[in-house]
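Extended Data, panel c. Modelled sequence:
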Amino acid sequence: MSSMFLEFEEINNILRSDSDLWKLLYYRSTSYYDNPLEKDDILLLPPAQKNEIINMRLKPSPVTQDLAKEAICRIIFHPAPRRPQSQSYAVATQFVDFDVFVHHSFNDVDLRMTKICDRINDIFNHKDFRGLGKFKFENGNPFTFEGEYVGYTLTYSFGSVNGK
């Protein structure tokens, strides 16, 4: 049986455990050739420090008001439509949106938004996660956001009905 809570808890765990994603979200490049993936692993920091970094940059709710005071990169992930199969909530195709917010001071240096979107795609697209099924990229769309941020929404579907 499928549980939306368990599905999104697993997505949260997947995102929280990807070292390269955290390097892209956290480290600021000084030039186009300064590779944030060559920096120290955020996941090896003491738990309090690591959690502060992660909790500021990964949200399951559309929290953006603090971005006016911060110059960071953030991912907001949240449920999108859920399409039942055989009129069942439990057996369904679930869509998930990843809203990527990148302050221009990151993006102007090394096209950071595209790197973060590519990393999310590397993590999820055509991957089969136990309990979630296979992820399939559905679409991507830029969005405008007030202030000094660029944004992009990546939408994926998953569920047992997506096949192998």
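Strands lie at 58-59, 73-85, 88-103, 128-129, 133-134, 136-145, 149-158. This feature is highlighted in the accompanying rendering.
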